[in-house]
Amino acid sequence: MEELLETEAVLIDTLNGYIKAQEERLATLRKNVEDYAREHEEASRNIQQYLSNPINAYLLVKRLTTDWKRVEELITQDVGKSFVANITSSRSDLKFPTDEDLNGAAVALMRLQDTYKLETAQVARGVLNGVQYSTGLTASDCFELGRQSYHNRDYYHTVLWMQEAMDRLQEEQNATTTSKPDILEYLAFSTYMQGNVARALSMTNELLELVPTHERALGNRAYYQKEIQSKASQSKKKRGEDGQDDTAVPAQHFTVAEERVKTLDEMTERERYEMLCRGEVTIPPEVQKNLKCRYVDRGIPFLKIAPFKEEEAYLDPRIVVYHNVIYDDEIETIKRMAQPRFKRATVQNYKTGALEIANYRISKSAWLQEHEHKHVAAVSRRVEHMTSMTVDTAEELQVVNYGIGGHYEPHFDFARKEETNAFKSLGTGNRIATVLYYMSDVEQGGGTVFTAINIALWPKKGSAAFWYNLKPNGEGDFKTRHAACPVLTGSKWVANKWLHERGQEFLRPCTLENQTTDEADVRH
After folding, report:
1. Staple 296 to which of 33, 365, 388, 524, CB 3.0 to 4.6 Å?
2. What does pTM read for this prediction?
3. Whole-angstrom Cα distance, residue 297 to residue 304?
4. pLDDT tens digits along 321-362
5. Is residue 402 classed as helix, strand or coil in its secondary structure?
6. Domain 269-500 has CATH 2.60.120.620
7. For residues 266-278, b (16+ Cβ closer than 10 Å) or e, as one string?
8. Are 464 and 448 contacting, i.e. CB atoms less than 8 angstroms apart?
């Protein structure tokens, strides 16, 4: 996004240059008009006397020949061509978003709206979770959001944003390029697609009052009317026409029951995920009372002087957070090295093992090797002190940046049994554990949530989360299913270090039982 701001700055300079050139051209034309008007006014006072002067006669002819040709050149001169040509030649150096980027930005905003239950009117006013972050959206802005949703066949959000565009249109009056008929066309059809045919017909009639010859609206009106008539005829069908008794059915009495709130266990994973992201789920007291904080030295001499600050987030599976384990200078180095290498983050195809992009993971990532900088090496090697395991067989340090709306839906870090090709090329076995460094604070959103055990970790710059993905017997721990919540405001930077099975045989010995606690976990 920073590159887009740089592009916008270049465009602003270009537009200012274009406006200045146009103003100079118009100033010249204005001076010519004034000269013509002055001479014409003088001639009009006494035409015969004026024309009897040979100099005046010459100047009149000159004004209407040579001078006028220059005026014509100024009028027809397209000063914009050179500016557009300059921009075109600079396109290789400038970053321009594509239509796909626009659609992605719109989808990200819808994702935030759904996950954090943001009211459309509040978002349109630049208010996110009660905080005013920016100026509001115009009717045209809201219309474009609705149009993008429409192209994605997301008629629910199309209706929300087209209705907001309509409200904005009434407030802005003539200060917009968006028209009421345009909004009504999208709004009517999307309302129909949501099942409200009568409302769609009403909107279509309103559209035809404004544009009586609108072809699509005329066709849609006939279709909606036919569908309403069909439903009406079916509802009027009397009992007995199908051979059944038409005896009146006695009135039935119903009681209105209060809607029961679902428990977490009754909710879908998606519902739990969104509640966790909103911070609406708390750890039960019976679980929280057993969680501890401690200083950990792992028997390492240096850590006896400066032990790790370990905070237990959960016990089964054991998830801990280490505080102040990555430093500002290391973070800045890692971010600086990663930025030029950033690419759209990928996921592994569970059938082929190939890396591919997916809509359920929206972020940018890059990989850094230890030999590239002492800070990368220090951060990677520090994992050994935190986990008492080796990083010799670990993956490179993966740096990830989640921008606005960036997220990673519920997933496992380990490869399941059916994912036979996952990590095959590495030859180091499955991902036994994860260390997740948080390299930034996030103003709103961006939590790491575990949907099977209903806990959330919130980004805190300098901290790191650690958990085992595999049980001591090598089986995957399905309770470690987790997700990265969408970033509502701010930017989230993390670094992943995934440790693999090979090389850990004597550091974390296998067991036959699915025990949940390792001796190494509590050594301090």
Report:
1. 524
2. 0.79
3. 5
4. 999 999 999 999 999 999 999 887 666 665 665 656 566 557
5. strand
6. yes
7. ebeeeebbbbbbb
8. no
